[in-house]
Amino acid sequence: METKEFSLSLGNKTVVVRKTALAGQANGSVLVSCGDTVVLATAVMGKNPREGIDYFPLSVEYEERFYAAGRLPGSRFIKREAKASQEAILTARLIDRCLRPLFNHGIRNEVQVVATVLSFDQENDADVIAMIAASTALATSNIPWSGPLGAVRVARVNGVFELNPTYEERAKADCDIVVAGVDGKINMLEGDADQISEDALMEALALAQSYIEKLVAFQTSIVQEIGVAKVAAPVAEIDPSFHDAVVAFLHDKLNAALYQENKQQRAHDIAAVQSVLKEYIATEHPDDAGKIKAGMKIFDEQVDVIVHDNIINHEKRPDGRKLDELRALSSIVGFLPRTHGSGIFMRGETQVLSVLTLGSPSDQQIIDTMETKDGMKRFMHHYNFPSYSVGETGPMRGPSRRDIGHGALAERSLARLIPEQKDFPYTIRLVSETLSSNGSSSMASVCGSSLALMDGGVPIKGIAAGIAMGLMSDAKGNYKVLTDIQGPEDHHGDMDLKIAGTAQGVTGLQMDVKVDGVTGEMLKDAFIQAKKARLEILDVMLTTISEPRKEMSQYAPRIITLQINPDKIRDVIGPGGKVINEIIKSTGVAIDIEDDGSVFITSVDQESAKKAVEWVNNITREAKVGEVFQATVKKIMDFGAFVEIFPGTEGLVHVSQLSDKYLNHPDEAVKIGDVIPVKLVEIDSQGRLNLSRKATMQKETPAA
């Protein structure tokens, strides 16, 4: 099979691109590898435009294959990949978000990009490799696209920024950020950090940008050698005279509708202008139904023009705020009576209710993906966005890709603030319900979740807040950064930067753009402005609750931690789990045992927990010489009696030690079932316990 191979040294790694005959019917296909991780990326464009749509139909898929890691998937009953894992969905979104801005959105032909992981070496994450592969597949295809782009991961390990670190290095890092972009600009960010400064973030992005430029040049050289001419895909065009007529008709009608504070009133007035426009078009062009759709497109373009012009040239926002001004803020804790913790965060018309649930260590989620086998996830955040939150109707299905992405962003922004398991052994789940949305419900979820954690008494390392930042820019290089974007600013803005953190630093960030990218200067201004907003939000939250509650909810389970000899674990579990299951059944508690001998007993009922603790203590207790026990006689032999000093532990009381008088036989002093005081006088070399009843009968000799 004919192969053309290209390679690029990237830091201490080598990226290899191979063009082969594989997937030859796709418009573009390449194999990209780093180490032994190999990704096949394909790009296909439909031959004809889709009729009746007014958007660009792009879909991006990331396919994990268990065989890539040499593993069989699923349970004993299902042995093939089923629905995409959360990690696969998040990676598909990463790829989509950096590719999409570089397409002409007037194209109506379907475009699908698929990245399939064929080999995975457990060291090099396939996500960034897939981004590079998708870019190269598009760039070398005949599909119209304004790439290529570069993508890298940057992590700071022991104070030093590393490029495309291994999983082991990432586990030690205090920040982990994926950056994508084109020459001189960044068009996608995704990452988390351990309260690092904005200056450190800029340092990470500068390093990333230098390697992005190398990747773009590398792919450009590949395109020059194996690329094919781009096809002229049909782009939806509007008759210029019709365009001018619609613009003239709208004139100043849009300004009055757009510039008001209330979202519902704004939506009502915009809809009214749209209705009048439709009537005008229907009257002027009664025989051309397509003109109404074209008119709505012009309408949207004019809103974009007006919003950009007023903000860039006049610093005028639709709701009248200053560029760095937040909407009205408020927060509530303890809103729900029976949950383990709850918080409501409100910013303008955005309202999010976050609810905390605490569980036992065994409630952790088991992760089984291509990358992770039998992994355990102790902290979870889930995000819901029902249709009513934007005043619409819609089917109530499972979480969308957007829901999963927003939930994961808030989770990453909070994860490094969660206490270590040794300090707080609970499994922690947060659910954020978007009750009303008008701008950045994901960042409101960070705020609401922080409130819920503190309301529930979780000793978090810091309280986090988040904010969405926007950008309006023009072809001349002028730009304005906006704090707390909403409504038209969100829909028509050039950037959506979500950034979360504590007063000490940044914990999570995500950025998407609608232009080809943003400069480092723009991002620096946005980071500075975002920090100011974050501190203002934190001040409001801290007036509601200043620290985690000292006591957890009465309805939350309590976990009692014991440390036992690891050799005693088998005694607590018993043959086939008989002993531990008996404890659980009798007391109603949950019991989790770690290999190091840590035992976690979880129960809402304290009496049940105490009973279980006593039971485990009795099983695992180790007798010490000199201790006195109330022992039960279990067996009588000619030479003495065997007694149980505590459950599962027996010893011998020799006949000479049963009484302070001479005995011919042990049954002269005790019978089976008797409870007698005994003292442990010796543990022999074989671990056998020698006990004495006589020693408990002897009175202490009075002091002279």
UniProtKB/TrEMBL annotation:
Family matches, as InterPro entries: ExoRNase_PH_dom1, ExoRNase_PH_dom2, ExoRNase_PH_dom2_sf, KH_dom, KH_dom_type_1, KH_dom_type_1_sf, NA-bd_OB-fold, PNPase
Catalytic activity: RNA(n+1) + phosphate = RNA(n) + a ribonucleoside 5'-diphosphate
Cofactors that this protein relies on: Mg(2+)
SMART domains with a match to the protein in the record: KH, S1
Keywords: Cytoplasm, Magnesium, Metal-binding, Nucleotidyltransferase, RNA-binding, Transferase
Record-listed E.C. numbers: 2.7.7.8
UniProt GO molecular function: 3'-5'-RNA exonuclease activity; magnesium ion binding; polyribonucleotide nucleotidyltransferase activity; RNA binding
Cellular component aspect of the GO annotation: cytosol
Domain of life where this protein originates: Bacteria
GO BP, sorted A to Z: mRNA catabolic process; RNA processing
Compartment list: Cytoplasm
Major localisation: cytoplasm
S1 motif domain ranges (all copies): 626-694
Transmembrane segments: none
Binding site residues for Mg(2+): D490, D496
UniProt keyword Membrane present: no
Short name of any one Pfam family annotated for the protein: PNPase
The family this protein is said to belong to: Belongs to the polyribonucleotide nucleotidyltransferase family.
Known function: Involved in mRNA degradation. Catalyzes the phosphorolysis of single-stranded polyribonucleotides processively in the 3'- to 5'-direction.
Name under which the protein is recorded: Polyribonucleotide nucleotidyltransferase
Organism, as annotated: Candidatus Azambacteria bacterium RBG_16_47_10
Higher taxonomy: Bacteria, Candidatus Azamiibacteriota
Underlying gene: pnp
